[in-house]
């Protein structure tokens, strides 16, 4: 039979689950920020390579 004690225990279990999920969401948000920063860094490195290739191409045209 369900009584107040059983419901209160269930509420506490649910509260614990909610807190764990909220912590997970926070952690995932922080991971997302770090991954986004890494992505931006890689895009920057990619653009830098394009700039180097352009410089090399210009220098080769001058030498050729």
Structure description:
The chain starts with a helix and ends with a helix. The longest helix is centred in the middle third of the chain and has 60 residues, at 4-63. 94% of the residues lie in helices and 0% in strands. It has one helix and no strands. The protein is an all-alpha fold. It has a domain at 36-64. The protein has one helix at residues 4-63.
Return the string of H and E elements: H
Structural class based on helices, strands and sheet pairing: mainly alpha
Low-confidence stretches are none
Q: Radius of gyration over alpha carbons?
A: 28 Å
Helix content: over 70%
Task: Classify the beta-strand content into a percent band.
Answer: under 5%
End-to-end distance, in Å? 92 Å
The biggest sheet amounts to:
none
Question: What characteristic shape results from the CA principal axes?
Answer: rod-shaped
| Strands, total number | 0
**Count of alpha and pi helical runs:** 1
Mean pLDDT: 96
């Amino acid at each position: 039979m369900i009584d107040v004690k059983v419901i209160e225990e269930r509420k506490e279990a649910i509260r614990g689950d909610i807190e764990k999920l909220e912590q997970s969401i926070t952690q995932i948000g922080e991971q997302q920020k770090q991954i986004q920063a890494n992505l931006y860094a890689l895009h920057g490195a990619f653009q830098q390579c394009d700039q180097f290739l352009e410089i090399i191409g210009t220098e080769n045209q001058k030498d050729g």
